Amino acid sequence: MIIDWHSIGNLHSELYQAPMYNTTKRETFEFWRTIAKRYGDNPTVACLELFNEPTTYNGQLGTCSWAQWKEIMEELIVIVRANGAKNIPLVAGFNWAYDLRPAMDDPIDAAGIAYVSHPYPQKREKPWAPQWELDWGKMADKYPVILTEIGFCGPDERGAHIPVISDESYGDAITAYAKEKGISYCVWVFDPQWSPMLIEDWDHTPTRQGRYWKEAIPKY
């Protein structure tokens, strides 16, 4: 399992994309202190995703430099480890957890962590792979990277929105690139309301992307 603090916005300025994501630095630190004490030695909890999608929304949510974000993440890592967490902290890049370019030149000052990207199909235009390599893929040459959200849906499907609109060619491309780079991934989202959905209802009827991933994900 990955335990994820599912907020979207600017933790530095404490401004967020929607009211449902509102939090504070204190609440975030307290959450992770609680989680570290409760699940820090639980082998089922592999990773702690410290903040889901950091973004300034093109300045609408204030500003946050990589140095400022790095400082917050490093403090969180100190907190979880001081409270007993043996899990792997996950640090997301900017632009809704897409862009890891700043981290390539100035990585987090902590061992035993991994980095996160959410490379949805409309973050870049085809061909994707060369741009993925520059934006986040090169990070995997030196550090572990997990794509904790990937997925797609057609333009006429329920829940379609930027940046997730695409087709099965995205699935083929992202899985091939991840395999080449040794990058892990999680498909978003096993829910009939949040999109891009893997299921249509709580009878677990697969959607279009649900049918795709059911066949595409390796079976062990």
Question: Could you characterize what this model shows?
Answer:
- The structure is a single chain.
- This protein has 220 residues and is α/β, with parallel strands linked by helices.
- Helices cover 33% and strands 14% of the residues.
- It has one domain (2-216): Glycosidases (TIM Barrel, Alpha-Beta Barrel).
- The protein is built from 7 helices and 9 strands, in the order βββαββαβααβαβαβα.
- The strands form 2 sheets. The chain has a 6-stranded parallel beta sheet with strand order 1-4-6-7-8-9. The protein has a 3-stranded mixed beta sheet with strand order 3-2-5.
- Helix 6 (168-181) packs parallel to helix 7.
Task: Please describe the structure with a list of short key phrases separated by commas or semicolons.
7 helices, TIM Barrel, 3-stranded mixed beta sheet, alpha/beta, 6-stranded parallel beta sheet, 220 residues, 9 strands, single chain
Helix/strand/pairing class, anyone?
Answer: alpha/beta
The count of β-strands is 9
Could you state the order of secondary-structure elements as H and E? EEEHEEHEHHEHEHEH
| Low-pLDDT residue intervals, each spanning 5 or more residues | none
CATH class value: Alpha Beta
Summed up, the helix count is 7
CATH domain fold name:
TIM Barrel
Shape by Cα distribution: globular
Summarize the helices and strands and which ones pair or pack:
Blueprint: E1 2-4, E2 8-10, E3 15-16, H1 25-39, E4 47-49, E5 53-54, H2 66-82, E6 88-92, H3 94-97, H4 101-105, E7 114-116, H5 128-135, E8 145-150, H6 168-181, E9 184-187, H7 208-216
Parallel strand pairs: 1-4, 2-5, 4-6, 6-7, 7-8, 8-9
Antiparallel strand pairs: 2-3
Helix pairs in contact: 1-2, 6-7
